[in-house]
Amino acid sequence: MREILIIFQRDFREIRQSNTFRIICALSLLLLVGVSLGASIVLNRQSWLGETAARPFLVMITGIITYFVPLFILMAFVWAFASLPVTREKANGNIECLIATPISPRTLWLGKSLAIFLPGFLISCIVTCIIILIINLSTLMPVTGVFILPLPGLLTGFIINPLLIFGTLSLIILLSLISNPDVAVAPSFLVGFGLMIGMMLGLALGVISFNSWIFLGGYLGGTFALWMVVLHFSRYLVTERIVLSSKGD
Predict the structure, then answer these.
(1) Structural domain tally of the chain?
(2) Which residues, in sequence order, are CB contacts of 105 under 8 Å at separation 6+?
């Protein structure tokens, strides 16, 4: 555990000091302001807002927000930091120096994965919670009298979706350590764009509901399958493979 913390602190310090991290934080702030104010203004102008028949639509809106806002922020961290640090450390020999110490390959893998995921997860939770609070307190509660945030959407947005993204990130870091980092980042684009495009298309066709227990169960199954893939490839995370990949073999 101490070794994981050492890797985490080292990588997180580099991430935090980068211009990319500052840009993502600024974009997250813009996302917070844009979504919360935009949704509040648009909803306040609707004459049907207080009607009982409008409640399912309001539930759908909160579900969309709790799904897509964390997804955008987490994927931004994955795309920005998943493969570049490993590529750089392989080029300058830092990876070989690290695995020559008592730090094991799995410790190196977990420390690097957590250093990218935890800041993104924390920022995504804060931004999403503030957006939901603003929309409910300024718009929904004064009219409906209730705080609208259904449990399935809450579980999907704050637990299952982050687990899926963390699995994707862990797979990228794992493949980056044992193979070519430039190729390893490919799964993140498949998962990221697949989710964004697929979910938007499903919403448009009316076949997906983020507040459905059926959707939550299916999403949980997909997350479990991804982690099975991660665990399968983790068997190849050995010192010899990392050294050979660092030398370009």
Answers:
(1) 1
(2) 99, 177, 237, 238, 239, 242
Contact 112, 7 (CB under 8 A): yes
CB atoms within 10 A of CB 12: 18
CB 166 within 8 A of CB 113: yes
Report how far Cα 194 is from the mean position of its chain's Cα atoms: 14
Residues in contact with 226: Cβ distance below 8 Å, sequence separation at least 6, in sequence order: 164, 167, 168, 171, 191
Q: Which amino acid would we find at residue 102?
A: P
- Domain limits at 196? 2-246
Q: Which two tokens stand for residue 130?
A: 């503030």
> 247: pLDDT confidence band, cut at 50, 70 and 90?
low
| 58-80 pLDDT, tens digit each | 888 888 899 889 989 998 998 88
| Residue-level pLDDT at 54 | 78
Pick from 81, 86, 84, 82: nearest CA to 15: 81
DSSP state of 66: H
Render 94-146 in DSSP notation, one character per residue: HHHHHHTSS--HHHHHHHHHHHHHHHHHHHHHHHHHHHHHHHIIIIIHHHHSS
Give the model confidence (pLDDT) of 145-168 as tens digits: 888 888 888 888 899 999 999 999
Question: Per this entry, what is the length of the chain?
Answer: 249
Q: How far apart, in whole angstroms, are the C-alpha atoms of residue 243 and residue 93? A: 10
Residue 181 · residue 90 · CB < 8 Å: yes
